[in-house]
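Dock nicotinamide-adenine-dinucleotide; give full complex structure.
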Amino acid sequence: MKKVLITGGAGFIGSHLADYLIEHGSEVWVVDDLSTGSLDNLRPHPRLHVVIDSVTNEAVMNELIHRVDHVYHLAAVVGVRLVVDSPVRTLEVNLRGTEVVLKLAHRFGKRVLLASTSEVYGRQHENRPLSEDSERIYGPTVVGRWSYAAAKAIDEFLGLAYHRERGLEVVITRFFNTVGPRQTGRYGMVIPRFVEAAINGKPIEVHGHGRQCRSFTYVGDAVRAITRLMASRDAVGEVINIGNGAETTIIDLARRVKELTSSDSEIRFISYEEAYGAGFEDMMFRTPCTRKLQQFAGFTPSVPLDEILRQVIEDRRMRNLSPALLEAAS
Ligand SMILES: NC(=O)c1ccc[n+]([C@@H]2O[C@H](COP(=O)([O-])OP(=O)(O)OC[C@H]3O[C@@H](n4cnc5c(N)ncnc54)[C@H](O)[C@@H]3O)[C@@H](O)[C@H]2O)c1
């Protein structure tokens, strides 16, 4: 039986990963400070152990990493809203947390999967699928949103440095928009924000002109991909996109959410400045090249957007039901 540690395991991707690993026979430890995650995301199980603490607490992490075979490092300050509003914490957690994980995994000789992000590519000018060796184009340091990309890029450098210089087994995965049930819209994630607005009859707020393109990956596909990569000796030392090649514009996404929820909500355009303050920059395109994922994990995510939206809508409607109604429905 594999013993696995998931940092950030009470979060969106981490909790789905915990479900999957438990279902497939692993014993799972979760460490999470519950800053954006929630214990409600985790289903109690005899093979699930939850530690509420910070990934930057070296003594706790020492104990946990010593105990397990594999570490999935997902804990991070995530979401445009938080990154813009809490820049110090973003940098501290996203840099120091990774440093602690890599140092201890090296000390005990454990394989690590680092969760990086498509943000690492920075701002791209052409609509070409982003492959892992694409150039990275960043804005100036006075524009706060780039700190997240820069910190995650340093995490990647550090992971690769530990691999090359000290032989640590590291797999680096760059998640593109990963979506599905349990994701919260509180910190700026677009699908939960739109769904929440639509089912509550509030305006669906599109930032900018809405013609920016995104691709969305179902969380179940992402989890399957990272578990396969963790199990593959060949993936060690590699940087691999986790994403889906299908594109949609944000305005089409808003329209689709409205249709699928049969909502009367107005679609309202607001400027980035209004949403995130002066100087905010967004990208027009963000689509992954999935060649390496296919090569190393043996598949590419394929759950279509409509199916993902249906699941998110159902999940959101269930959460909106009062506890009394839920009890009556069960
Ligand atoms: N969801 C996406 O679309 C996406 C895209 C790119 C990258 N990622 C990466 O995937 C990982 C998981 O993201 P997610 O979408 O599940 O977000 P999430 O916010 O749901 O998960 C992050 C988890 O980390 C926890 N956390 C934050 N600071 C911590 C700390 N100091 N110590 C311990 N736990 C801490 C939070 O409480 C939360 O449970 C992150 O590293 C993120 O950068 C996600």
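Observed: Residues 87-108 form the longest helix (22 residues).
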